[in-house]
Design brief:
This protein is mostly beta strands. Helix content is 12%, strand content 32%. The strands form 7 sheets. The protein has a 9-stranded mixed β-sheet with strand order 13-12-15-16-26-18-21-23-22.
């Protein structure tokens, strides 16, 4: 993928470009020099892909990076598209000055290496504000075919000068970070139960993107497994997304106890662009990545990843930012001593929501209401002995109280004896070791697949359940909401893309409504009821 690194843009495609000799290696622009490197990261399995589709540029949100888009890029590839048509723009969301200019240079580079005059543009959260800002300039907007605005603030109209850029607006009622709403004049897709990250990473969002870009439904919304898998990515600082130049990455297969299964499979030195790889990996095997650097003050990090299921060029290895940066000050309280371990957990595709998800570390519950309330939209939690007093039962660490998306949990994790600590997330398990936080490094375990066991518990009203009782023989479904008088006018039926579907509903008693499902296509629907305390939703599945 293509990424930004400060004022330099580096291109490393996943397959060799046709006739690379026709692509100049250096281009001088008004703003900066753009260096293009050809890197056939994912040549395997790409020979039969379709490279005729216009390229897509993805822009992440606050504190995020290009791996926000991993699942969606893999879904496009699962539909036969060449992965080197999909690009992630990394930017410093903590200091966004000049970001529009960098994005413009980035898009120019994408156009150059793909030979396409225009791109599709996608922005999530703060990346949505970036998208509207970028498209406000007519010359820049002329480079964009269409724009997808995901989980971001509602605007008064479509993007582009005078609303000239075709715009898809995807938002969720359950998003606790952004108060989404329809955008007049845009194509609007509304979901009932997705959290702030699911609205960017979900299969339903992929369907909406695919249909918006290409005018037809995808053949599949699944991430299709492969037998031969190649991975690679970037090594950058948390929040600032600056390359960790000069760092060393050692990659090991992990055994069932979370220890290295033998010596390193590969060793990489991170260059000025932040890229690492490529590396062939085995299906069904977890991997750990040890990151070290001779740089003064550098904190070692050990990453654990679940088994990879498909080629992945967006395996991001974040390192600690400089100590006096905003993110660095936040993380400065994390122990840096050989008698304490720090075990962090990162959910890259969804938030962890109390009442919906189950996350634990060696039996300590990390999905409590105090840590994982829906309003927190927690995607990462740092577990360590806060205060070094040897006590704690996963209580929140106050340092993280005012920071979005991140939490700290007070859990004593001694380094002796050496032992396995097991992380369980919605039924998926990942064993790690209690490494010494100073001499070995801070542990970060990554769950990179969506794992929610339910999609309704993060809604505003959690105590009341919408009961759905289908009667297949008659084609009717009964809707029942205890203690609430149902009004068909306040019930909305949406399809899997979030589009409102006309529904034939009649009252059947004060607390019950009869829904006629005859004629509705098979698939998954969302039923949402407007109440005084908010929306209450549930899923309806119509089988063949």
């Amino acid at each position: 993928p293509l990424h930004s690194a400060d004022s330099t843009l580096i291109y490393r495609p996943m397959t060799p470009l046709p006739n690379p000799a026709t692509r100049p290696g250096w281009i001088i622009s008004r703003m900066t020099m753009i260096c293009l490197f050809l890197w056939p990261l994912l040549a395997q399995g790409q020979s039969n892909c379709d490279d005729t589709y216009p390229p897509v540029v993805f822009v992440h949100g606050f504190l995020a990076s290009g791996d926000t888009w991993t699942t969606q890029i893999q879904r496009f590839a699962s539909n036969g598209h060449c992965q080197d048509r999909y690009f992630a723009f990394d930017w410093n969301s903590l200091a966004a000055a000049g970001a529009d200019q960098l994005l413009d240079q980035f898009i120019d580079s994408v156009r150059l290496v793909t030979g396409s005059d225009q791109v599709h543009l996608v922005g999530h959260s703060a990346g949505g504000g970036r998208g509207y800002s970028y498209l406000s300039d007519p010359a820049r907007a002329a480079k964009v075919i269409s724009y997808a605005h995901i989980g971001s603030n509602p605007e008064s109209g479509p993007a582009g000068p005078g609303g000239s850029t075709p715009t898809l607006n995807i938002w969720s009622e359950a998003d606790q970070v952004v108060d989404g709403a329809d955008i007049p004049g845009a194509e609007n897709v509304q979901f009932a139960a997705f959290d702030h990250y699911q609205v960017a990473t979900s299969a339903a969002t992929f369907s909406a993107l695919y249909e918006f870009f290409y005018g037809s439904a995808p053949a599949t919304t699944s991430i299709t497994p492969q037998s031969d898998i190649t991975i690679g990515g970037r090594c950058i600082t948390l929040g600032e997304n600056k390359p960790t130049t000069g760092a060393t990455i050692e990659v090991f297969a992990a055994d069932p106890q979370g220890s290295p299964a033998g010596g390193p499979l590969a060793t990489f030195t991170v260059g000025a662009d932040g890229f690492w790889g490529p590396l062939s990996v085995t299906t069904g095997t977890s991997y750990l990545f040890k990151i070290s650097s001779p740089a003064t003050g550098f904190r070692k990090v050990i990453y654990y990843y679940e088994p990879f299921v498909r080629d992945n060029s967006t395996v991001y290895l974040r390192t600690f930012p400089p100590p006096f940066s905003l993110a660095g000050l936040l993380l400065s309280a994390i122990p840096n001593t050989d008698d304490q371990s720090v075990i962090s957990i990162f959910s890259s595709a969804q938030a962890v929501i109390h009442g919906r998800d189950q996350l634990s570390l060696n039996g300590y519950d990390l999905s409590t209401s105090s840590l994982a309330d829906a309003s927190a939209s927690m995607i990462a939690v740092f577990c360590y002995d806060d205060g070094a007093d040897g006590s704690g039962n996963a209580e929140p660490v106050g340092t993280f109280a005012l920071v979005p998306f991140l939490q700290g949990a007070d859990i004593p994790v001694p380094t002796t004896p050496e032992q396995t600590w097991t992380i369980t997330f919605n039924g998926s398990t990942l064993p790690v070791r209690n490494w010494k936080s100073k001499s070995d490094g801070v542990v970060i375990a990554v769950f990179n697949e969506p794992t929610s066991i339910s999609g309704t518990h993060d809604l505003p009203s959690e105590r009341t359940t919408l009961s759905i009782t289908p009667n297949p023989a008659s084609g009717y479904t009964f809707l029942h909401l205890p203690g609430i008088i149902l009004d068909p006018a306040k019930i909305i039926l949406r399809d899997h893309l979030g589009r409102q579907v006309p529904a034939n509903m009649t009252p059947a008693g004060d607390e019950q409504v009869l829904l006629n499902t005859t004629g509705l296509p098979c698939g998954t629907y969302t039923l949402s009821v407007a109440t005084e305390s908010g929306w209450i939703s549930s899923f309806l599945i119509i089988h063949p």
